[in-house]
Structure to design on (332 residues):
């Protein structure tokens, strides 16, 4: 079995996660693109069917409420976001729908979803006619995930109808913990872990989700000022460590003067060492201390310090195209 940390690229594995970490929301109505343009950091207005982008949803203070993927369909927009955030997002959107022709629906309440990790998940069939994994599943509709994973929205709830074709194509079925290992190893932030009450999109590195020239939107002034005046104070970094004693919330210190330790952040997500693979963690670090390869100390509850090293996250998400050649499932 391929361990989530044993590959040199996040999409080098072939795995399916049946307990999908994502949810889907559908935004429809004549004003859907304008509404999403005004409610997110991305330039959405004028996008044509088949186009996709990522975006951040922020409040009037520029604080991060959700990181989402937007896929424009013919009559609506699919919104991909972390499972658990969808009800809060729907309530937030509903709060600002006054006279606009916009309807927001929770899709995954009616259609089960699973997640595929593989670069071939939404490629066209090869020249020799060999089918792709997705084409063998049948009626599943594909929505790209936030790191170019493929999210399958399934018309039926019986997993035997789609799991077996995936196994035949060499896919492994991962547990939720294996997904967490993959997520942390490649630096994919999770709202339930890596977001606190003062997190903004810049701290997560969501540069590709922010348009600086699209004009006004909710929170735009704060987001622009943070960038213009270089006021981003923290950034999400990875850490490598070798001990089992590390825990969530552990303080990270710089190794300058042991008599006067300086705290620079806390661990927000972690997965322990496995065999020869080091433990991996994510942490919100003071930006002026966030240097690649920098040795730091992790402080455990017994007061002991353990050596770790800061590392940059793999966080380059391409804009893969998606062909909407099949009818998407109706949610009405």
């Amino acid at each position: 079995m391929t361990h989530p940390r044993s590959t040199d690229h996040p999409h080098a594995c072939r795995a399916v996660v049946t307990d999908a970490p994502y949810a889907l929301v559908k935004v429809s109505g004549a004003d859907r693109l304008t509404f999403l343009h005004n409610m997110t950091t991305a330039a959405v207005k004028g996008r044509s069917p088949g186009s996709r982008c990522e975006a951040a949803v922020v409040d009037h203070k520029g604080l991060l409420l959700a990181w989402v993927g937007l896929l424009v369909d013919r009559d609506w927009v699919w919104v991909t976001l972390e499972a658990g955030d969808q009800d809060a997002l729907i309530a937030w959107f509903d709060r600002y729908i006054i006279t606009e022709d916009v309807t927001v629906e929770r899709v995954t309440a009616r259609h089960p979803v699973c997640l595929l990790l593989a670069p071939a998940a939404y490629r066209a069939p090869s020249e020799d006619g060999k089918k792709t994994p997705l084409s063998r599943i049948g009626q599943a509709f594909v929505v790209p995930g936030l790191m170019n994973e493929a999210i399958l929205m399934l018309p039926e709830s019986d997993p035997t109808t789609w799991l077996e074709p995936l196994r035949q194509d060499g896919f492994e079925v991962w547990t939720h913990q294996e997904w967490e290992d993959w997520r942390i190893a490649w630096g994919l932030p999770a709202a339930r872990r890596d977001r606190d009450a003062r997190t903004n999109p810049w701290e997560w590195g969501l540069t590709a989700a922010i348009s600086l020239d699209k004009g006004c939107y909710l929170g735009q002034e704060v987001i622009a000022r943070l960038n213009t005046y270089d006021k981003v104070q923290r950034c999400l970094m990875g850490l490598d460590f070798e001990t089992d004693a590390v825990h969530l919330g552990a303080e990270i210190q710089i190794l300058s003067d042991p008599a006067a330790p300086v705290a620079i952040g806390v661990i927000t997500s972690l997965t322990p060492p496995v065999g020869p693979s080091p433990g991996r963690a994510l942490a919100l670090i003071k930006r002026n201390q966030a240097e690649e390869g920098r040795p730091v100390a992790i402080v455990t509850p017994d007061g002991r310090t353990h050596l770790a090293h800061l590392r940059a996250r793999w966080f380059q998400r391409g804009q893969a195209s998606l062909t909407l050649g099949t009818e998407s499932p109706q949610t009405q």
Remarks:
- Residues 187 and 313 are 5 Å apart (CA to CA).
- The chain has six helices and 16 strands.
- The helical segments are 32-39, 86-96, 160-168, 176-186, 191-194, 220-228.
